[in-house]
Each structure stands twice: as structure tokens, then as C-alpha cells.
Design goal:
- It contains no helices and 20 strands.
- By secondary structure, it is mainly beta.
- It is globular, with a radius of gyration of 19 Å.
């Protein structure tokens, strides 16, 4: 919740006055996904963090991604974390080192991303209620799935597939124009089999990142290791006047080392 800078919990019937604090946060997160009960989240500076789903105050910095991530999604089909960056590109994100690699440019301007268990991605066209689907082979030409509303979406929104139901969930925020400006956030649930949708959770808060807990057991990719793969320095070069000094910070990779 960007209004309070806290993780909040809600369901389909929640109103703004009923938003419950799930965990406090020292970071401002705009993108997140959950893999095997470990939450991966990127802040507004491009830093990637990891935290246990059950204790999201136990935050570990993985490393800087070197770019801003607008939304993240886990592709179970190839066991890879994907994200849409600030340029509308689909990228992969290494969950242990935060390394980012560009896959390609998405065919519609978007800042949302979700992925189902079969490897199909979903996003909306920025500024609209148009929801599209695409695969790694059709990334340049997404297919229109459904149009949900006509007000137009704003910069704060997030998508995620509910791993328990298979439905596409979209936390969509928009602000009305005119003399009296009002803000709204809705949680849409979309049935991917027939395109039908329900709108619920009428809120006024800006919800920047969305995760949905999986009720099944997880894997062990976050287990400790004694193998170091690299070190990320805060700077790779410095220019100093004689007599001056500077401090470098170093992040050991992977973060599980």
C-alpha cells in the first residue's frame, strides 16, 4: 500500500477502512511475485529484495537489478522469474543474483505482468482496461483477451495469477479527472477460460505490488549454499582528489551464500 508504505491484506469483500496491515516495510515496492513461499520484490530504486511469505519484515537485499521493474511474475513452465521494466520490455530476473536479461519488447505499452502455469503471460494496455495475453513466441503481437472498464488505468497497478484458482487477479488503480478528483482501486478476477470477470474490493488506496499465497508446499531454492558466484560492488570506478577517501559496499552473490 503506497499510501501507508505497508504490506496490507485484503480479499474480494474488503473496503478501504478494512485494510489490515500484514507487515511494515522500510522499502517502497512497485513490483513483486512469490515463489515457493518466498516473496521477491523490487523497490523504486531498482533494488531486488527477498523475504519469507510468513515474515515479510525479514528482508534481505539480493542486489541491484540496474533498472526499474514495474511488475514481476513467476513462470512455472520454465521455472523463471520475469518482469516488465520501465521501457515496456519483458526481462528475466535471476532470483539469486538479481541479474536482468532482456527477452524482448512487449507489443503493447504496459506496466503489468502475470504468468499462468502453462507459460502464458498477461498484461493490460497502459491507460486502458484492455487485458492481453501472449507467449514468448508472440510477445510482439499480444492477443486482446477482454476489456474490463472504460475509465482508464493509472501508473499504479499490478497483476498476478491466483495459484489456488488459476484466475487472473488485477489490482487496478485510477484517478478521475475534473474539478473533484477521486481515486479508486479495484481487484478484478478474470476467468481465463471464458474471459468473464468480477470486480470487487472497492478501495481508494494505491496498491503497488500484489502477491497471492500458494496453499501448496514450496521448493528449496532459497536454501543456504557455500558456493559464491560473484560480488556486486556499489561502484566499479572512482575519481578522487589526493587525500580524499571513499567507501565501497559489496554484496555477495548469491544472497543465500
Amino acid at each position: 500500500n503506497l499510501n501507508t508504505n505497508k504490506w496490507v491484506s485484503y480479499d474480494t469483500t474488503t473496503t478501504s477502512s478494512e485494510l489490515e496491515t500484514y507487515a511494515s516495510s522500510q522499502q517502497t515496492f512497485y513490483a513483486a511475485t512469490v515463489v515457493d513461499h518466498m516473496v521477491l520484490a523490487a523497490d523504486d530504486q531498482g533494488n531486488l529484495y527477498v523475504m519469507p511469505e510468513k515474515d515479510m519484515t525479514d528482508v534481505t537485499l539480493i542486489a541491484s537489478t540496474g533498472t526499474l521493474l514495474a511488475d514481476m511474475a513467476y513462470n512455472k513452465a520454465d521455472d523463471t522469474i520475469y518482469a516488465v521494466d520501465g521501457y515496456g520490455q519483458l526481462v528475466t530476473v535471476d532470483r539469486l543474483t538479481a541479474e536482468v536479461e532482456v527477452v524482448g519488447e512487449i507489443g503493447v505499452a504496459t506496466n503489468t505482468l502475470a504468468c499462468d502455469a502453462n507459460g502464458t503471460f498477461y498484461c493490460n494496455k497502459y491507460g486502458s482496461g484492455d487485458v492481453y495475453s501472449f507467449t514468448l513466441d508472440t510477445i510482439a503481437e499480444p492477443t486482446l483477451l477482454v476489456n474490463l472498464f472504460s475509465q482508464g488505468s493509472a501508473y499504479v497497478q499490478s497483476m498476478e495469477i491466483d495459484p489456488n484458482t488459476g484466475k487472473l487477479c488485477w489490482a487496478a488503480f485510477y484517478r478521475t479527472s475534473g474539478l473533484i478528483k477521486r481515486t479508486y482501486s479495484y481487484c478484478f478476477e478474470i476467468n481465463l477460460e471464458d474471459g468473464s470477470s468480477t470486480k470487487s474490493a472497492s478501495l481508494t488506496d494505491e496498491l503497488g505490488a500484489l502477491i497471492i499465497p500458494d496453499m501448496s508446499s514450496g521448493g528449496n531454492w532459497a536454501g543456504a549454499t557455500d558456493k559464491v558466484t560473484g560480488i556486486q560492488l556499489s561502484a566499479t570506478s572512482l575519481s578522487l582528489m589526493r587525500g580524499d577517501s571513499a567507501a565501497l559496499s559489496a554484496i555477495v552473490q548469491p544472497w543465500t551464500a
